[in-house]
Amino acid sequence: MYWLSSRCCSSSGNTSSRRIRPSEVQLFTISELGWVLGNGASIKFLDDVWIGKKPLKESLSSTFLEPSPTIREVLLDQNHHLCSIIPHDLDQLQLSSHKDICVLAATNKGTFTLKSAYDQVRSHGVKHSPFYRIWHRHFSRRASMFSWLLLHRAVPVDDHIAECGINLPSHCCCCRRPHVEDMNHLFVHSDLAKGLWLWVSPVLHAGHGIHMNISLRLWDIIKSCSLTNPHDFITIYCSMLIVWEVWKIRCKMKFEQVKYSSNLLRQNIHALVTIAIENMVFNDAGTPQQMEAIVELGFFVQPIVKLGKLVRWFPPLQGLALNIDGASKGNPSPCGGGGLVRNAYGTVVLALSHFYAAGTSLLAEAQAMCDGVQLAVEQGIFIAEIYSDSMTLVNSFRTGLSPSWDCHRWWRFVLDFVHHHGVRVSHVYREANQVADALANFA
Ligand SMILES: [Zn+2]
């Protein structure tokens, strides 16, 4: 089965539409379709994707030439020769009365719509080159402009002018000893520049000061620092201001014979950076070491104040409460789930911890919830409330829409249970779900 999609929608009558270029066309092949098991009547046992990421016949060593039976045909016949190839952890597969659902595996909802297809093939987010960082709105425009010139090696130092065929006697005014003036010397090795780089050394990352080429040094700093962190913001802006201030002073000394004071330069840079950080709100506070480095340089950044909220586990008003949690060390990666049932006094009635192989945290959460409910039913325990720290999962029971097609099987079991017994599913903060979290991590 093939579906045609494209990077853009070309609906006629829409003024923003445009023609689809052949390079933008992408095919969704059968391997991108998955099946959620219901009564098993529509799923081809060997040919369709219903366990793992590819059809069973592709992952098996032996080849099957006969047409594939449906899952229903295989599971209802205990002696069917294909029963033996079902993986061990799936040997308790149960058919339900629901219909099988075909999903677009690459999407979360699993539905094939123009939007879901478009979301698959479009590029997400706006990617900016680190180069844009020099144009931050709180940076001095002149410093930004000069940094741009420096990164393009377009600064009219003596050496550069000589390269253009105009040979003048060259003399660096920023050193006590006579030296030819070239870009790397003026902005890295001159007495003036050396003192300033030494001054900002506490905020420079290891390895930033090693480039003797000033353009590479500045580019390295801009590339590795983000502007959301106060430490990195100060590092970038100080570096840009150092080159800009050195250039200004160099021109003044060369053409106006003005004497410079290195201290005055530092004060200028300090004042400009202070004004910039006063206007900034940083999302990221930075590490204590970074904050120390900032203070060492004489800067003060207002720390982000977060209001505290009292969080605790609330016992159920009546009956028993099930707390569940899923743990995954990445998405996707090996995951597990845990949970426990407690009464109104906080006494643990039962607890579970189960490893689920590869999956996402949401998948682990849904499976853990299903396991918790199944175990409670088997033990004859009546659950009145279910607590989870996954807002997505909790909301899905309110809306009745599965949060993701791959956890649909377990989610539907819990949904049926919740509807049938009038059980409440509520969200709790992670801090109030610590025991279940520990059990999930243990799994
Ligand atoms: Zn010099």
Automatic annotation (TrEMBL):
<dbReference type="InterPro" id="IPR012337">
    <property type="entry name" value="RNaseH-like_sf"/>
</dbReference>
<dbReference type="InterPro" id="IPR053151">
    <property type="entry name" value="RNase_H-like"/>
</dbReference>
<dbReference type="Pfam" id="PF13966">
    <property type="entry name" value="zf-RVT"/>
</dbReference>
<feature type="domain" description="RNase H type-1">
    <location>
        <begin position="316"/>
        <end position="443"/>
    </location>
</feature>
<dbReference type="Pfam" id="PF13456">
    <property type="entry name" value="RVT_3"/>
</dbReference>
<dbReference type="InterPro" id="IPR036397">
    <property type="entry name" value="RNaseH_sf"/>
</dbReference>
<dbReference type="InterPro" id="IPR002156">
    <property type="entry name" value="RNaseH_domain"/>
</dbReference>
<dbReference type="GO" id="GO:0004523">
    <property type="term" value="F:RNA-DNA hybrid ribonuclease activity"/>
</dbReference>
<dbReference type="GO" id="GO:0003676">
    <property type="term" value="F:nucleic acid binding"/>
</dbReference>
<protein>
    <recommendedName>
        <fullName>RNase H type-1 domain-containing protein</fullName>
    </recommendedName>
</protein>
<dbReference type="InterPro" id="IPR026960">
    <property type="entry name" value="RVT-Znf"/>
</dbReference>
<dbReference type="InterPro" id="IPR044730">
    <property type="entry name" value="RNase_H-like_dom_plant"/>
</dbReference>
